[in-house]
Amino acid sequence: MSDSPRATAANGLTKIVVGLAALVFLAGACSSGNDTTTSEDATEQVNRGAPEDEGPPQDGGTLRVALGAEIDGLNPIQARWSLEGNAIGSSIYDGLMTFDEDRNLVPKLAESVTPNADGTVWTIALRPDITFQDGTPFDAEAVKANLEARKAIPISGDSLRPVDTVTVVDPLTVEVSMSSPWFGFEYLLAAQTGYMVAPAMIGAPDSMQMAIGTGPFRLDGTWSPGTPVNVARNENYWGERAHLDGIQFRALVDQISRTAALESGDVDLILTQDPAAVTAFRDKDGFIQVEDFAATEAFVMLNLSVPPFDNIHARRALAYATDRNALNQAVGGGIQQDADQPFTPSEQYHVEDSGYPSYDPDLAAQEVQAYKDDTGQSTLSFTLKTTSATQQKAEAELLQAQWSEVGIDASLDQTEQATFLANIFVSDFQAAMFQNFGWVNPENNYIFWHSSYAKQPGQTGGINFGQIRSTELDDALDGARSTSDLEQRVEQQKNAVRAMNAEVPYIWMYHTVYALAANDNVGGLSAPQGLGFARQDNKPWWPQLWLKQ
Fold first, then answer.
1. What is the average pLDDT across 290-303?
2. What is the pTM of this model?
3. Across the strands, what pairs with 113?
4. CA atoms lying within 13 Å on the CB side of residue 476
5. Where are the alpha helices (DSSP H) in 166-323?
6. Cis peptide, bond prior to residue 308, ω within 30 of zero
7. How many CA atoms lie within 13 A of 383 on its CB side?
8. How many other C-beta atoms can be found within 10 angstroms of the C-beta atom of residue 530?
9. If one looks up domain 62-249+514-547 in CATH, what number appears?
10. What is the topology classification, in CATH, of domain 5-20+296-511?
């Protein structure tokens, strides 16, 4: 029995689990969310929140920030931003809308955003007397130019596909007409679509290296890919004046290096999802940490338009073969929250019985055989794409080992993030390690799940990256978008979860915990703790951070 292929694979898997656990936590030693269902006894957690009494904020100084990924540009209309891009962009640009501490949608550059009775016409009223950092007025013409430019961008511009026309009613009023009802449009304006750039950036050949917004900081000097982004306080800012003189944003992709940079004093603040770092900084003297569980979901995204995952048995086999708890314990340090859907238990859209397959190696083996019977293939094999991030690579290797136990052959293809995202945007993958769905309102997920956003003939790609096509899922998403009744929208979103999980387009792993860890000279972290910082929306709290002088 011990010489069987399955037993041998199991022994190998055990070694990988133990080795990964040692690697993750030894590396950590060397170097606002509202969910509390993680490992609460791992540390004393004295740094679990911002200090309550820091004294009055002090002005001056440059905050040095390390993030986990490079960005591909500074223009929010064109750039493919993840959480890091939104963090940088929020210092330079304001959104039309934002969120308060209760995660309610509130106006920012807009004074109001209101629909007509059937959700086909939205009126955006703007704040008066605001100028861009180059002195040009922020007005209705600028908003019209931004929205139309965004819609014209291939693939990502599809988020505004229902928009028929953008009309300037008067200097401070814009009317957006839709081709069909779209309740939930206003939430898009608190994410990347809502960042407003100066008209001079729109159509400029070097716009990806430009940054002219209305925000609390302005680009200081020039920027080119692969270099830090330096911003200086906007002395003419219309809103709350920033305490900091400036911020330097650096990309330190390697998680261990990012942690070491904070510990050595090379940077003042890091954004991290590294479980070893999150755990270590909970009780490390001289540091402050705030955490956010209301973040993104981590999963393996499958491409349903190409073999082998155009076959439902292949997808089910992978789901049944994935031991999420073992993954969390080995690589996630036990602090991640298990996920079988895109919503945490505290969210109103969460489905108690999501219909997602639970870990069952025997059923996985049966599905592998069903795949072979269906397709005539001798093996279930594919390539799993991953970035160069340490944790993601470790997760991919553990999944590879788990899947091999039931006869699934996965090879790994590791690339840097810019190339990885470029492949994802044109659906050039079979399976890919991914994180997404970090939105306050699930309306933002429509474009990733609805079949009309899958790649169409003649297109290079579609923002429905996994090419999901399900009538039941489409009906639920359209039902949620077409009503202003909150209870009906919630129920339709729950229906969407069930319909999506029936297709198994994602191999769910966990709800991600993110942390902002800083040395204790950084003040004001109660602002991101209260407002949240790990969602894919704008971060209005940069002006409230400060440095002890």
1. 90
2. 0.81
3. 124
4. 20
5. 185-188, 255-264, 275-281, 312-320
6. yes
7. 8
8. 17
9. 3.40.190.10
10. Dipeptide-binding Protein; domain 3 (3.10.105)
